[in-house]
Amino acid sequence: MAIAAHNEDGNIALIGHSYLVKVTLSNGLSFTAFTYAGELPSCAFGFNSNGIAFTLNAVPPLPDEILAGGIGRNFVSRDLLESTDLEDAFNRILSANVSVGHNYNLADVRSRRILNIETASRNRYAFQEAGPEQFFHANMYIHLQIQQEQNESSIRRQRRAAQLSVETKTEALSILGDCEDEEYPIYMQGPTLYTLCTVLIDLDEQTLSIFEGNPKRGETCYVLPIS
């Protein structure tokens, strides 16, 4: 099994204001991306016809870590949608002189590889290639030593995920649907933050599945071929 799963969390005001966009460029490359109204595709997740898929996690820094005049992270993720392969995607992330960092989960269905990359301003980065052990990333840096907000929600979600094991896709979706910590659940239902949807990238089946509602129920809205 080779999968990457992600909860797309956002302000509750975003409900009903997101779109699944499919684009075919003049060079024949096509991509599909989950996009918010008025924003570039995508600050959430997407994939292209070269078999490259990604999900994203915000990792808010403290003000001293922000580089004035740097490149906004949404421009980087838009550029990712034109990646030719995993190495090209990796280089596109690292070549940008970003204003703030981000966390990228990159998947290549052709090479069956998944990378988790943390970036920060001033050309700092760290990455980890996924192996047989499960890996969970919330909205705080894990590998880079960065001045960052001590976000209680991320701390509690990271702690809760570490208590659970994943052997199957069903168990992965169950973690993302977990509400055991009522104050800071992994699956959010307001009053401010809300899990808008859940996505599962299956590298063996070469599909991206989107779930609305708690993914524990396993009710898919879309199953899209990554090609």
From TrEMBL:
Signal sequence segment: none
Highest taxon in the source lineage: Eukaryota
InterPro entries per the UniProt record, alphabetical: C45_proenzyme-like, Peptidase_C45, Peptidase_C45_hydrolase
Peptidase C45 hydrolase domain segment(s): 3-216
NCBIfam families reported in the protein's UniProt record: C45_proenzyme
Name by which UniProt lists this protein: Peptidase C45 hydrolase domain-containing protein
